[in-house]
Design goal:
The protein has 2 domains: 120 residues, no CATH class; 78 residues. The radius of gyration is 20 Å and the shape is elongated. The protein contains 11 helices and no strands. The longest helix is centred in the last third of the chain and has 31 residues. By secondary structure, the protein is mostly helical.
Amino acid sequence: MSLPRNQQEELFSADKELADFLPADDPMMVFSREIYPAFKDEDFAQCYSTKGRWATSPAFLACVTILQFRENLSDPEAAEACVRRLDWKIALHLPVGEKTSFHPSTLCYYRRRLRDHEAMSLIFDRTVKLAQEKGFIKKRTSQRIDSTKIIAHVNRIATTGLLFRAVKCQTEEIEKKDAEYFEREIPDYIRERYSQYFSSFGMGLSAGYIIDRIVGIKVDTSVVSI
């Protein structure tokens, strides 16, 4: 898969159209001004072939990954945020009227590509360097997190999403094929939980909490298994 062609930035992107939508010091406005322009597709050239179909911009996906980690979102939620949330559109310089997004699996393949080419630290190192240059953190400050933890944390959220959707599909299949069994054997809490669109259970959650949710979903799997 090759790098995308350089394209002129969208004239009607949200960062221009909605320049006064958020306060200038809002984190998403700061991200739009300082972080987004710092990443270029050429930075990821080592991870891509010069042949093949164009890839989704790796610089764009780097920015999505940072926001995804910041808000503890699953891959589907991150992809949806690029369409539904104006603050994300501002941060990522997306068109205000954008109604389609990349497939959620794109983020999974992107992380794998970074890992396979030993480029997992690129996003983290670039962000830390920029933060130091802007005075957000001191150059000699000890950091509590590294790129490996960022990728691992996002992967845990992605795993939660996959497990949730698997149980949701199984529950829907039971209801469709055997309504009597569904009414008799499937507990109300299972029906209610998996009738909802998947959520990563809120923002700012710890890795331990996310793992607990994974364990809980695995228990639910035994309930709906026939």
